[in-house]
TrEMBL record:
Binding positions for GMP per the UniProt entry: 226-230, 346-347, 374-377, 381, 398-401, 473
InterPro entries reported in the protein's UniProt record: RtcB (IPR001233), RtcB-like_sf (IPR036025)
Family: Belongs to the RtcB family.
Record-level Gene Ontology MF annotations: GTP binding; metal ion binding; RNA ligase (ATP) activity; RNA ligase (GTP) activity
Subunit note: Monomer.
Binding site for Mn(2+) 1: 107, 227
One Gene Ontology term from the biological process aspect of the record: RNA repair
UniProt KW keywords: GTP-binding, Ligase, Manganese, Metal-binding, Nucleotide-binding, RNA repair
Cofactor binding description: Binds 2 manganese ions per subunit.
Entry EC no(s): 6.5.1.-
Cofactor: Mn(2+)
Gene3D superfamilies (alphabetical): tRNA-splicing ligase RtcB
Name of the molecule in the record: tRNA-splicing ligase RtcB
Amino acid sequence: MQPKLNRLLRALAREGLEVAYDGRLYSVRLQGDAHAPPAEVLLPPDLPVEGKAFQQLAHLAALRHPSGGQVLRVRATPDFHPGDSGVAIGSVLHTRGLVVPGAIGTDINCGMRLHVANVSVEAFLAKRTAFVERMKGHYFFGTRDVTMGSRASEALLRDGVQGWLVETLERPLGCAGRADLAQLDAEVARIHLGGGLKGHPRWAPESFTREGLVRDAGLATIGGGNHFVEVQRVEAVEDRARAWGWGVREGQLAFMIHSGSRDVGKHVGVAWQDRARQAWPVGAPLPESGILPLGDARLVEQYLEAEATAANYAFLNRLLLAELLRQTLRELFGDVEAPLVYDVPHNLTLPYEGGWLARKGACPAGAEQPVIIPGSMGATSFLMVGCGDARALESASHGAGRARSRFSLSRGGADQSEAALGLTGVDCITLRAERRVEEAPAAYKPIRPVVDAQVEAGIVREVARLAPLLTFKA
DNA sequence: ATGTGC
């Protein structure tokens, strides 16, 4: 074991955590709480970890509901780090009889989407300036207001992108023409869960559905933080047969989208974290972690429907971002084909083994499923395939993990030179210079050890690597 | 994560 980690774990033991390890798999539990399952995390060698993240993990595992709901297992991904709501980013939570709104938070159905395109890298780079100008002209600065009719919006919120498409085929709108809609219809099969869960418009913000229009809610915008749109090059293919089957070839141009449910997820997440507080049984001691589960069956059902509503919105948000990018390529390069490889959520509660599995910043990694692990700005991204590892709760990391807070980099007196931030050679278009600093490569851990640890543990296998050419951040 | 914080 690494000396630094050893010191950290000793400190955690003094703070009331039982700590054990077996190879690279570490487990923690609150001392004296024999009923709680241990919380496990796989750690790559020589990467910084924060004690607070371990604390959050142990408290999550210790959670139970007075009505009998329980936590069955907690597992964290190798990129886990402390989260604001008391739940570490990278936590995977298996429960029965309870769900935890704070274990998803506000970034509901944050996820990844990958397309490849039959434009050569050379041709693309030759028109880079024109491409950037067109991109600035619409969604990524939020200047393009995407609206839709009441039937399409209601169908979207109830059923996801398939419902939206059915209504949209009757009344084409805004950014999509009829020919494009036929392709979108064919691509629904490449969206995890078919791009839809059972939701209901009643959970969307009131302003969102007013006058039967969906507007001013950030539809087809990237969002902040680690979210991005990136043009990439497939720099290496490791599993040729699988990559071929997925339409991915070495040297291809590709684009990747990391975005979520924007204001709709925030609305649902905030409302339900409050609701969980209100619904906590009178007289029952509050968990010291501040993490509050829902245990009443009816409330659980309602929360999941609200979460699904925001998730449906996120699926469409990523779809529209991709559609705008695909159209921009067509404007510049003619009849471009840019098929979807896969779209996968990494912030969602889903049914699992008779209970629920909440992934907070963790990518589903079921057997044979495409897994998309983005690198941070300037870093390689990975297309992998899941191995269905039950010990890891069929989950992989959703990135490299943040190493430094936004504040510590932007205003914490850090060296803001290009070299110190790791920005040398990075081509990034942002709305504000501040973003480049907050999300600079120096803000994140290296992705390679995080990926390697998961390959060695049998959680995922590598299919292809993608190198960034041009990154857009809000 | 969030038209935002430290």
